[in-house]
Amino acid sequence: MDSPQWTESAMRHGSVRDAILEHFKQNPGEASVDEIYTSVCEKLGPTARSSVRSYLGLNTGIWFERMSPGRYRLKKVKGSR
User: In angstroms, rounded to a whole number, what is the distance separating the alpha carbons of residues 70 and 51?
Assistant: First the structure.
């Protein structure tokens, strides 16, 4: 049985996080999970949609705000405009 082929980006720790944060840096404001997922795939190549959803969900309240079901934005820092 052949072993699965992994791309370097899929194995690099933090690559999904970095791609999500880069999306918001380039596109300030709200974004849907689909928009974020598309952006991550453009940066990293094929990526599990669940990795993007999971990262957003686990980091809501820390890095992200959930604006409505399936829509997120970077969390605003107190004192920022």
Answer: 14
Q: How many residues does the chain have?
A: 81
**Using CA atoms, how far apart are residues 41 and 78, in angstroms rounded to an integer?**
31
Structural domain contains residue 49: yes
Query: Residue 49's domain is classified under what CATH number?
Result: 1.10.10.10
Provide the whole-model pTM: 0.80
Is residue 6 a part of any domain in this protein?
A: no
Distance (Å) of CA 74 to CA 8, 9, 60, 61, 77: 27, 23, 9, 9, 9
Write out the chain's pLDDT in tens, 81 residues.
443 444 544 447 799 999 999 999 999 999 999 999 999 999 999 999 999 999 999 999 999 999 999 999 999 877 655
Domain annotation covers residue 64? yes
Residue 60 placed within a domain: yes
